[in-house]
Amino acid sequence: MSVKVAIIYYSSTGTNYKMAQMAAEGAKAAGAEVKVLKVPELAPEAAIASNPAWKAHVEETKDVPTVTPGDLEWADAFIFSSPSRFGTVAAQMKQFLDTTGGLWAQGKLANKVVSAMSSAGNAHGGQEQTILSIYTSMYHWGAIVAAPGYTDPVTFAAGGNPYGTSVTVDQNGNMVEDVAAAVKHQAKRTVQVADWVKKGLQ
Q1: How far is Cα of residue 188 from the mean position of the Cα atoms in its chain?
Q2: Taking the CB of the first residue and of the last residue of the chain, which one, N or C, has fewer CB atoms within 10 A?
Q3: Which of 33, 18, 25 is nearest to 194 (CA)?
Q4: Hey, which bits of the chain come out as E strands?
Q5: Which residues of 105-134 are buried (b: 16+ CB within 10 A; e: fewer)?
Q6: Residues 79, 49 contacting (CB under 8 angstroms)
Q7: What distance, in Å, lies between the first and last C-alpha atoms of the chain?
Q8: How many CB atoms lie within 10 A of CB 70?
Q9: How far is CA 20 from the centre of its chain?
Q10: Contact criterion met (CB below 8 Å) for 149 and 189
């Protein structure tokens, strides 16, 4: 049976959505069954409407499914992607993680394999800490973290973040580093580790 991967992201203007799409491509290339899912938006409509790029992205991704508890049960592995907000995850991602207590209490999140990605407006804008904050929640789940480390040279070309791929976004919303290869490698590694775990549990 193929590994089932849920790629769960929050994106206001599109960066983490694009990274989620890259991850989906890498996971599918590794033979996984993939779902790309967004977390619920919490911002008021007035705030979204005040930012043309945000408003356009919401419209662009209106057909992307919103993650549910059932998706968490379904998946063998997760890849999370969130922008950094003051050195931690966006409120939308945190609120979603806070809704997982029921599944956690039932032990249904244990032994899932997880990896994480992030973005920020400058190279030292909290990407690493944001990824690590996601992993902190995963430790409570009893999940197994599959960080990319330095398992492939593409990590260096993308900025060298061993915790998970991260990208800097300029004032025009463009990614500064070319992270596509690193994201795809991270996704393939996540699938590989999840396959080992899945076979080990059978």
Answers
A1: 14
A2: C
A3: 33
A4: 4-9, 33-38, 77-85, 88-89, 113-120, 144-145, 166-168
A5: eeeebebbbbbbbbbbeeeebbbbbbbbbb
A6: no
A7: 11
A8: 9
A9: 6
A10: no
